[in-house]
Design a protein that fits this description.
The complex is a heterodimer of chains A (1040) and B (478). With 1040 residues, chain A is mainly beta. Chain A is 9% helix and 47% strand. Chain A contains 12 helices and 50 strands. In chain A, α5 packs across α6. Chain B is mainly alpha-helical. Chain B is built from 18 helices and 5 strands. In chain B, the strands form 2 sheets. In chain B, strands 2-4 form a two-stranded antiparallel sheet. A two-stranded antiparallel sheet of chain B has the order 3-5. At the A-B interface, α1, β26, β30, β31 and α10 of A face α1, α2, β1, α3 and α6 of B. β30 of chain A pairs antiparallel with β1 of chain B.
């Protein structure tokens, strides 16, 4: 039915004819108002029509127009000029560069618009901003730049992605990442490796990016329908310009080290003494003489810890100090030994140019980044060719072609023994870095004389964070080839048919090897494991665009159809039993332990339409609608419809505003719409019986019930509203935006917990919850100084976030340390509450409810020293109150200085590592925080650190509020200083421009809590995340 | 030209609109799963479904975890204080809480997973397109699985049968449920045991004699289960009869086989988890935990005084190895044991049930039964004692003295096989551990009525099940 309707509309559009008036040649020169230089590639259009020309390298243009037409001169980065012809044949104009004006062209969904006509919430990141920062990934470039966009880089692993959230988390279980669209094609984002932590978006060379638009509300994003619930990041890559070939070269090198110091821990002597004192005190209490007690205590400590960092076996005297004649032989600062500086380098070039018909952009880059943990790195080589060609008067074609090869060495993460940072955080300084003999001398290899790594630290026995990094391999190699071809056919002046076809092929190979001698694979004689994943995505979009202006009315309508198909293939194999460590490929292993393959398919069929209507250039209305059918959803709910409506009003152009001089521009906008979130497994709605070697038994093939069916499973729906004011004041020196927005999510994908005792399953995927997000965004930019020598502007943005679970099908869901309940946000901590230390005994205390005779809480509480009896309470939220950024851009003569800070206030963090190192003696050998020196003793009863004891079973390290801390922080994300050499001087040696720069990322961090990097996921810091690095880079931009 | 162009475009567009059969395009099939509807309508899939349940039983999260769990809580064994890879110290110290209870949490999950797999299959079996022989065989296996899961669940989370039929048991369900059905609360211990007896008796009648593969359920292993269940219930005559059926015609293993440790089935094994080198539990096998040479976790030890005081010089069970030639020396808290012979290729089969235990069940049942045959009890006891020690003398004890001797013999024969804690429970004995034995637990002693003797119902079940939320075992917080 819907299809027939579209066909009819199409026919109607076709059959209308618009008469053309008599035309003549109009010509002129377009130049830059500040420098006087002619501007090439400026688009000159007749207002209301689709056809246009561009200026040549001398800034000249010629266009056929009628005497009553109006010409539009537009160029990204410059104020669009609207000039009525009024019968003239020569029209010369000057365009002024501008920061953010209403006539700026903004890239929006399936097209672009002037900012005045944009009724939704769209933030643009300009090319100037991107070029100024020598960033490794474009995701990190977005941090602090736009209100409503929260970017958290939670791992310092080179090549890993960042978490981007636009306007709060609208889901509980499904992904909250936005949709990424590159050159009009939605692309796979996220991790394409089976085992590494990487992000396929890192295959995009940031130097290729021309602009980024962030679509934050439904009016902007609804055209992407079922995938747009979390907003859309629109990326356009660079295109050529008419004129002689321009070459740009960029070379940079940088150095990275740890951004934030880790926890303070005990030195070897302090650690040893901590346990020694327990033995000493107990010997003395048993009646032993001081010297004898000390000697026994020394021996007992050495036996317990399995190590002795001193030169003798009786190192500590009765006073607890090192005796004369004994000395400390080593004191291993594991974290310091594990974290090292990393070097980053990049070589990039691009060539662009073209004539009046065809333009091209060719780029290449080689990028390499070492991480600060052993054997962690990311390198990338990429080549791009973008071609745009106006073949004849009706047809233009375009090509976007990009091939990237990347290689990533992943330092192991998570709770496993092979995570080097976990090892470093958990191992005491009393264990030597190198193997030592009975005399505490370093043992060396007989042949090479290299010191042998110590694999005997009992905290993680048979592992060594640096030693294993030299012989184990965690390598991911990815190759990606993206090719988009498209064509525009001008059917009539008002009507264009656009067709785009894109093929994106990703090959990701994981090549892992664990050595035979130490670590995880030692018992099996070494293990090699490889994964080959291939992702093939096909996207086809066909649309018709109708643009017409008459009198005061303007129309811009599109109607279109899209087909998306994604086929993922997975292949993996694993072998063990390697005879020698020289060969590490699968064939060299003599025992095959795994061989598997599988594939999955996703398909999306869509129809969409959008209308932009403008009246007198002051009043704008946008409506859009999209219908998506997706393969992932249950058979009862395959199709969904999404739509939006938005309006904007340019108040400043009303006559009543004419006398108000201090306001230059005032725009009011409002919108409402729905979008969807379809990010669930490809077969999530089906009841499945799985076959796999994992279910085999004793050589017989087995299968098991792996998933409960839900035929009603459908996408999440988000209703967004947005009301905002955009303004420029004080001669356009101050510009800004103030917005109030809400996002209400319904039908949230939710693993509804069901009792295991009912079906054997612990949860079932359903659509049963609702969440509401709302907030205020404000951003400002103020140009302090703007004259021939100096331009200085400062900017700031702030976003507040309110989040509330408005409906949950069960009373609550416990999710790790958080509990989801109606009426509060989804980041509420719900854990045991620490009640201090018992002054009399030194035992840790937690709260529990006092129950009445029927077992109900009376509202009163008491404390208990038995952790398993503690009750849980609501203890604050991990969600921040507000976040944002602020910065400054200064240009003085040839110098440019940019600075950007990002900050977050409110929100609590949980530090699992701190609880690990406050085990109070129950884990001999495991590292201890310096807090332990303030532990309860009979002489030190006023403390929040409980008693220390060997084989302590107090459970102080259990999850509790004791380890919740404030997560506020402010970070200098970027500081860049550059100098551009005088252009005239450079021209004499044939160089178009030369700029040198030095830049720092994460230079300074101020945080409410010390000991770990404050940029954490909201689940808290567990499993010893790869820490963030501070990078200082220097480089050259050279243009010919 | 213009018009032709327009016509072509219209046609293309119209074709695009109507070209796709959207239903076909939007239906995709997974590549390594089939629809669950096919599980019980295809005989080969049905068979693989049953095999999948065996895999769950010998999963590292179920029996290979529960066996050491029972031993470290049983008093005669312990986990070493350091280098234990974080496995079992909480259970050894009786510090389980609803959020962290390695062993009992997994048991709840695995046990109810198996029950959740067995119930739909049992409901569908009558109409399934199977041969009559397979119908009987599969039904017997499914009933045995269900009974086995309930037996472990009720002994870990509830008081022993001997403490009262009406005590809270575990959730009992024999119907097919779907996720929207209301949650169930705990049935009584008596109800659970009654269901087990029904299931096992029917399973015994259906299981053919011809099935002899000890890696799968056989008539004998079902009879063994029945013996265990009746022993718990105090049905002495039934326990003895079932145990005798189980060991009848079975040859006990020789001393040489005993000394070689559990590796592959010998004549006496009644049930085992089959393990191959490419499908093993790796480090999480029972063998790995008891390994003596640091090739596995090597984290379990035996009580020194138990081993020193109770075995004669010629009892082969009393001399576990302390060190093996060629291996690296280990810091010992107690004695290491090579009962579970570990090899680095991890392909040792996991022994779940053997005939010696049946002899001891029969002996105990006859000794306790007021109408029992004391002579028979002494005979059965002697079978076990004489196999272990050439110098053993047939016991002349009767009455309580005989019972005590049999109980002690259970400890001597079955240590490290997962019975120790369950015996303490059903006998309602206090747990007393001494540092002289190598114990360091805090606390050392746990009397029978201490709340910690029962494992807490896991937090994930409490959170999802509003009925059972109020039925947690006493002493554990919310």
């Amino acid at each position: 039915m819907f299809k027939k309707l579209l066909t009819i509309v199409f026919m109607v559009l076709l059959s209308s004819q618009i008469a053309l008036a008599q035309t003549q040649n109009v010509a002129g020169v377009v130049s830059d108002s500040e420098s006087g230089e002619p501007l090439a590639a400026v688009t000159v259009q007749i207002e209301g029509e689709n056809v246009g020309v561009t200026t040549d390298m001398d800034g000249e243009y010629t266009i056929q127009a009628s005497p009553n037409d109006v010409l539009l001169f537009s160029f990204i980065g410059y104020e669009t000029l609207r000039v009525p012809i009024e019968g003239r044949v020569t029209i010369n104009v000057e365009l002024s560069p501008d920061i953010a004006l209403l006539d700026d062209v903004v890239v929006t969904a399936y097209g672009n618009q002037r900012r005045r006509a944009v009724t939704g919430a769209v933030s643009s990141v300009t090319p100037q901003t991107l070029e100024a920062r020598p960033i490794t990934t474009f995701q990190s470039a977005l941090q602090g730049i736009s209100s409503g966009v929260s970017v958290t880089t939670t791992t310092g692993q080179p090549g890993a992605g960042s978490n981007i959230q636009i306007r709060g988390a609208g889901s509980i279980n499904a992904s909250t990442q936005p949709l990424y669209v590159i050159d009009g094609v939605p692309v796979i984002s996220g991790n394409t490796s089976s085992v590494a932590s990487s992000n396929i978006l890192n295959t995009l060379n940031p130097n290729d990016i021309q602009s980024i638009s962030l679509l934050k509300d439904a009016s902007a994003a609804a055209l992407y329908g079922s995938r747009a619930a979390n907003g859309v990041v629109l990326i356009e890559t660079k295109r050529g310009r008419e004129g002689p070939a321009r070459i740009n070269v960029r070379v940079q090198r940088g150095v990275s080290n740890l951004a934030v110091d880790q926890h303070e821990t005990l030195s070897a002597t302090e650690y040893y003494r901590q346990y020694w004192r327990q033995y000493f005190d107990s010997e003395v209490a048993g009646g032993a003489a001081a010297d004898a007690a000390a000697a026994t205590a020394n021996q007992s400590t050495i036996d317990l810890l399995g190590a002795n960092p001193f030169s003798t076996n009786n190192a500590l005297g009765p006073d607890g100090q090192i005796r004369d004649g004994s000395s400390l032989v080593y004191d291993t600062d594991w974290v310091d030994r594990v974290i090292d500086t990393g070097v980053t380098s990049e070589y990039a070039f691009d060539v662009s140019g073209g004539n009046d018909r065809t333009t091209y952009f060719l780029s290449g880059s080689a990028f390499d980044q070492e991480g600060i943990l052993p054997n962690s790195s990311f390198s990338r080589g990429s080549v791009r060719l973008n071609i745009d060609s106006q073949i004849n008067d009706f047809i233009s074609v375009r090509l976007r072609s990009n091939t990237t090869v990347s290689e990533q060495n992943n330092a192991p993460t998570g709770g496993g023994a092979n995570n080097p940072l976990r090892f470093a955080n958990l191992t005491s300084n009393v264990y030597p870095f190198y193997e030592r003999n009975a005399n505490n001398e370093i043992v060396r290899d007989e042949v090479t004389n290299r010191p042998l790594y110590n694999y005997n630290a009992p905290t993680v026995l048979d592992f060594h964070p640096v030693g294993l990094a030299e012989v184990d391999r965690y390598l991911n190699e990815t190759m990606r080839s993206t090719n988009n071809i498209g064509a525009n056919i001008n059917l009539m002046e008002q009507l264009v048919f656009k067709s785009d076809l894109s093929l994106d092929v990703i090959n990701s190979k994981d090549n892992r090897y664990w050595n035979r001698d130490h670590g995880n694979a030692e018992p099996v004689g070494g293990r090699a494991s490889q994964f080959y994943n291939r992702y093939v995505t096909l996207n086809s979009t066909n649309q018709l665009q109708f643009i017409e202006d008459f009198e005061d009315h303007s129309f811009d309508a599109i109607i279109g159809q899209e087909y998306f198909s994604r086929h993922d293939e997975f292949l993996s194999a694993e072998t063990t039993s390697f005879v020698t460590g020289l060969l590490t490929e699968l064939s060299a292993g003599s025992s095959i332990t795994d061989a598997s393959s599988s594939f999955s398919d996703r398909r999306l069929i869509s129809f969409f339409s959008r209308l932009n209507y403008g009246y007198k250039d002051k009043y704008y209305l946008t409506t859009s609608i999209r219908r998506d059918g997706a393969s992932e959803f249950g058979r009862n709910n395959k199709w969904g419809t999404f739509g939006s409506v938005g309006a904007s009003w340019i108040i400043s152009e009303e006559s009543f505003m004419n006398d108000i001089d201090f306001i230059n521009t005032l725009k009011l906008r409002a919108s409402y719409g729905t979008t969807g979130n379809n990010s669930i497994g490809a077969y999530a709605a089906q009841g499945l019986l799985g076959f796999s070697s994992a279910f085999d038994y004793n050589g017989l093939g087995g299968s098991t019930y792996t998933q409960l069916a839900n035929p009603d499973l459908k996408w999440e729906v988000i209703n967004s509203t947005d009301v905002g004011v955009e303004f420029e004041m004080l001669n356009s020196r101050l510009s800004g935006e103030l917005v109030y927005w809400t996002r209400t999510s319904t039908d949230l994908l939710f693993s509804r917990p069901i009792p295991v005792s009912t079906t054997g399953f612990s949860d079932i995927e359903s659509n049963l919850a609702e969440i509401k997000n709302s907030g205020i965004e404000a951003n400002f930019s103020y140009r302090l100084i703007n004259n021939r020598d100096m331009v200085w502007s400062v900017n700031a943005n702030i976003t507040t976030l309110n989040n509330e679970i408005t409906s949950l099908p069960v009373d609550f869901v416990q999710n790790g340390t958080k509990r989801f309940e109606e009426g509060v946000d989804r980041y509420q901590y719900y854990i045991q509450e620490f009640a201090g230390v018992d002054e009399a005994t030194g035992a840790p205390l937690w709260f529990r409810d006092i129950l009445d005779s029927e077992g109900n809480p009376t509202g009163e509480r008491e404390t208990t020293s038995v952790y398993s009896q503690a009750d849980r309470y609501r203890l604050g939220s991990a969600l921040e109150d507000f976040y944002g950024g602020f910065g400054s851009n200064l240009n003085y003569k040839g110098f440019d200085v940019q600075m950007l800070w990002s900050y977050k206030v409110g929100g609590k963090i949980y530090d699992f590592t701190r609880s690990d190192i406050l085990h109070m003696g129950s884990q001999p050998g495991q590292q201890l925080s310096t807090d332990v020196l303030d532990a309860w003793t009979p002489d030190n009863t006023q403390t929040d650190v409980p008693r220390f004891g060997i084989n302590n079973s107090d459970n102080f390290e259990g999850t509790s509020s004791r380890f919740i801390y404030d997560g506020d922080y402010m970070r200098l994300k970027n500081l860049t200083v550059g100098y551009t050499f005088d252009r005239d001087l450079m021209n004499t040696i044939g160089v178009r421009n030369l700029r040198v720069f030095i830049s720092g990322e994460n230079l300074l961090t101020f945080a409410a809590y010390d000991g770990l990097d404050p940029e954490l996921p909201r689940s808290g810091n567990s499993n010893n995340i790869f820490p963030a690095s501070r990078t200082i880079t220097g480089g050259i931009n050279l243009g010919f | 030209m213009n018009i032709i162009k327009k016509l072509i475009t219209v046609l293309l567009f119209a074709m695009l609109l109507n070209a796709c059969d959207t239903e076909r395009v939007l239906n995709v099939d997974p590549s390594i799963s089939v629809s669950i509807d096919q599980a019980f309508t295809d005989p080969e899939v049905f068979e693989s479904y049953v095999i999948g349940i065996y895999d769950e039983l010998s999963d590292p999260a179920y029996l290979p975890r529960l066996i050491p769990w029972s031993d470290v809580r049983g008093g005669d064994a312990m986990v070493i204080p350091t280098n234990n890879f974080g496995r079992y110290p909480i259970e050894y110290n009786f510090r389980e809480n609803p959020n962290s209870a390695y062993g009992s949490d997994d048991l709840w999950f695995q046990g109810y997973d198996i029950i959740g797999l067995a119930n739909p299959a049992l409901a569908a079996i009558a109409d399934a397109p199977l041969s009559d022989a397979n119908k009987a065989l599969f039904e017997a296996e499914l009933l045995a699985f269900r009974a086995k899961a309930y037996h472990d669940l009720v002994r870990v989370f509830a008081l022993p049968y001997s403490a009262g039929r009406d005590n809270p048991g575990v959730v009992l369900n024999t119907e097919v449920k779907n996720p929207n059905d209301p949650p169930l609360g705990r049935s009584t211990v008596g109800e659970v045991y009654d269901q087990m007896v029904i299931d096992l008796e029917r399973a015994e009648s259906l299981m053919p004699e011809s099935r002899t593969n000890v890696f799968l359920w056989t008539k004998k292993s079902i009879q063994g289960m029945l013996a265990r269940v009746h022993l718990d219930m105090g049905n002495w005559a039934d326990a003895s009869a079932a145990a005798q059926r189980a060991f009848s015609g079975v040859q006990l293993m020789s001393q040489a086989e005993y000394a070689a440790g559990f590796d592959e089935p010998n004549s006496e094994w009644l049930m085992a988890g089959g393990v191959t080198a490419d499908d093993s539990n790796g480090f999480l096998s029972v063998h790995s935990f008891w390994d003596t040479r640091r090739l596995g976790y090597s984290s379990l030890r035996l009580d020194i005084t138990f081993m020193d005081d109770n075995f004669t010089a010629t009892d082969i069970r009393g001399y576990p190895l302390l060190r093996q030639a060629g291996g690296s020396p280990i810091v010992s808290t107690g004695y290491v044991s090579n009962k579970w012979e570990h090899n680095p290729n991890f392909n040792q089969d996991e022994m779940f049930m053997r005939a010696s235990e049946m002899y001891l069940i029969a002996a105990e049942a006859e000794a306790r039964d007021p109408q029992g045959d004391v002579g028979l009890a002494q005979d059965f006891l002697f079978e076990i004692q004489s196999r272990a020690d050439v110098n053993a003398v047939r016991s002349g004890n009767t009455g309580q003295a005989l019972i005590d001797e049999i109980i002690l013999e259970r400890r001597k024969e079955l240590y490290a096989e997962g019975h120790a804690y369950f015996d303490l429970q059903r006998l309602q004995k206090d747990l007393v551990r001494t540092p002289a034995g190598g114990h360091y637990a805090d606390p050392l002693d746990i009397p029978f009525n201490d709340f910690r003797r029962l494992s807490p119902i896991p937090q994930f079940e409490l959170d999802a099940n509003e009925v059972i939320r109020d039925q947690q075992n006493p002493g554990y917080g919310s």
